[in-house]
Write a structure and sequence with these properties.
A seven-stranded antiparallel β-sheet has the order 3-2-4-1-10-9-11. Strands 5-6-7-8-12-13 form a six-stranded antiparallel β-sheet, with helices on one face. It has a four-stranded parallel β-sheet with strand order 17-20-21-22, with helices on both faces. The chain is α+β, with helices and mostly antiparallel strands. It contains 18 helices and 23 strands. Helix 5 crosses helix 6 and helix 9 crosses helix 10. The structure holds adenosine monophosphate.
């Protein structure tokens, strides 16, 4: 049986009611590039005529020919940026997907991961569904197409009510955009306004780029229909305890975004401050691993009063690097990305802040690099707890076997990395940093406790111990 466990971390953007909908979507996707750089696509509707363009690569590569955007005419559009771990290079999996059903068009873009995808897919295939892709996103389309409900919006509502897991989704019909968020609210999805048009995006940084204003989040469990009649909300899914992904705050979202009701920058800074309180150390300077750890590093520096320095320079022009595995130039992959500022590091006791350690490969190579640049002491501080379990809700994480903290104690990792000390933020500390009383977070990658049951077939591959 074909296994459709695809782990997508993605960005979605949609706009209703603007004559240059596709162009604005292009800019929106540009600012969501960090959520996925493997492929991108935009679909638009021009009075019922549907136009689609998608391809492998980053947004400017996929839309490098300016005439492409012009061809995507219409006042409504949705777009998607994708990064996946499984089925990665497959053209068929590029979103948005576009189908025709009952003589009407339907397009979809999805950020997240279904946990009951195998069960749903098997059920649909047993009834005769023929799948075109290996992505769990396609399941929504089959559920909508095979629903016995009368109206299209009812069919959409019933399809999402059958799905389990993480989904922040945008659908485009000839004359509407529909935004859907799972009842746990795993992934962010925000509603904004640009003049008279409505915008929906994974993160608010996509509003800023076009000058749109944040209105509110799409609610967990909400199906939000945007059409010429305005906004219409439906809540067809069973309500559930919120489980917003804490890793969005730690690493994934941009610091200039507001997600789940709070600015990422503020939360990250608080994490850094708390880290300094939980694990103080005597040192001359504190440096962060750019870019994702920059804000937490500032927090650490403010709290500890250890001066913040730029000790590592990141090359922002690194796309995919093609490195011959046979070559003798050791650590070239990390050297392409980072270079230490020797004048800053030499003969100093250094605190290095990173947001997370996954496999431990980046940290190990960077420590070596920092030592070679003359550091006297290297103290690693991580603004999240040890990652011990894979994610089933849309963050690209390796199997348990590959997660260093699932297989080694902190002391062993400390030795393995070759640092003078290694300390992680506590789980309790991390969970206390949010000022949002009404939101519960999913911290399963740190605790191993999943907010919803993971079917054993999904779990088998990714939770197995060595
Ligand atoms: P690793 O080298 O596997 O330990 O990866 C840790 C580094 O990758 C840290 O510097 C993080 O900022 C970054 N990181 C954390 N989570 C992810 C992820 N899901 N995908 C890509 N990079 C990540």
């Amino acid at each position: 049986m074909l296994e459709s466990v695809i782990n997508d971390k993605c960005g979605v953007f949609g706009i209703y009611g603007h004559p240059r909908a596709a162009e604005l979507t292009y800019f929106g996707l540009y600012s969501l590039q960090h959520r996925g750089h493997e492929s991108a696509g935009i679909v638009s509707s021009d009075n019922g005529q549907i136009h689609l363009h998608k391809g492998m690569g980053e947004v400017p590569q996929v839309f490098s020919d300016p005439s492409t955007i012009k061809k995507l005419a219409g006042r409504l559009a949705i777009g998607h940026t994708r990064y996946s771990t499984t089925g990665a290079s497959s053209l068929i999996n590029i979103q948005p997907f576009l189908i025709t059903n009952r003589s009407r068009y339907l397009a979809i873009g999805h950020n997240g991961n279904l946990t009951n995808s195998l069960e749903l897919r098997t059920r649909l295939e047993d009834k005769g569904s023929i799948f075109q892709t290996t992505s769990d996103t396609e399941i929504f389309l089959h559920l909508i197409a095979t629903s016995s409900k009368k109206s299209r919006i009812e069919r959409i509502c019933s399809a999402f009510a059958a799905a389990k897991g993480a989904f922040s989704v945008l659908l485009l019909t000839e004359d509407s955009i529909i935004a859907v968020r799972d009842p746990h609210g795993f992934r962010p999805l925000a509603l904004g306004k640009f003049r008279k048009s409505w915008i929906v995006a994974s993160e608010t940084c996509a509003f800023d780029i076009i000058g749109a204003k944040y209105v509110r989040d799409v609610e967990p469990g909400e199906v939000l229909e945007i059409s010429e009649k305005g906004l219409k909300s439906y809540f067809p899914m069973k309500t559930a305890k919120s489980a917003s992904c804490i890793f969005e705050y730690i690493y994934f979202s941009r610091p200039d975004s507001k997600i789940f009701g709070e600015n990422v920058d503020k939360v990250r800074r608080r994490l850094g401050r708390l880290l300094a309180r939980e694990h103080p150390v005597e040192a001359d300077i504190v440096i962060g691993i750019p870019d994702s750890a920059n804000t937490a590093t500032l927090g650490f520096s403010e709290e500890s009063k250890i001066p913040f320095e730029i000790g590592l320079i990141r090359n922002h022009y690194v796309g995919r690097t093609f490195i011959d595995p046979e070559q003798k130039i050791r650590d070239l992959d990390v050297k392409v990305k980072f270079n230490p500022v020797k004048g800053v590091i030499n003969n100093r006791r250094i605190v290095v802040v990173d947001d997370s350690i996954v496999r431990g490969t980046t940290a190990k190579k960077l420590v070596k690099m920092i030592r070679e640049a003359g550091a006297r002491e290297v103290h690693f501080r991580i603004s999240s707890p040890p990652i011990i379990s894979p994610c089933f809700f849309g963050i690209d994480m390796p199997t348990k076997k590959e997660l260093i903290a699932a297989n080694m104690s902190v002391q062993k990792i400390e030795k393995h990395l070759g640092v003078d000390s290694l300390r992680y933020l506590s789980l309790k500390g991390m969970l206390s940093m949010s000022c949002l009383p009404d939101i519960n977070f999913c911290s399963s990658c740190f605790s191993g406790k999943y907010p919803i049951r993971i079917p054993s077939i999904n779990a088998k591959n990714r939770l197995s111990k060595i």
